[in-house]
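idk why but the lab printer keeps eating my pages so im just putting this in chat instead. protein + zinc ion:
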Amino acid sequence: MGFCSKCGRELADGDVYCPKCGAPNALLPSGGKPYLNVLAIVGMALSASGASPLAGLIVSVLAYKKAVAAEFRYPLKGLAKAGIISGAVATGIVALILLLYAAQLLLFPLIWGSIYVLSQYS
Ligand SMILES: [Zn+2]
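predcted complex ->
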């Protein structure tokens, strides 16, 4: 709880900006919010683009954890959450593709090898 340093209006605990004049709430740690926004956006971009879903997942989790720790209404908390979900999904898909690829590499010579061996005896 505090008051706006510009217009004197009473501010709620979670107010990042004064609801009357729009001045930033001086009681909140300065610089924390833009930094968190960048983290959330970078995390979401990495996750959604598929460029590096695992990195996106890590960055999004970091952004979300920091947003929760900051204890103020954080507008991009939802974006961080979305980044976590899409990062997790994309990481899962990439892991599945890699797993299938590895299985295919392993099984392919096995299948064709056995077909070849069988054809030799028929
Ligand atoms: Zn104000």
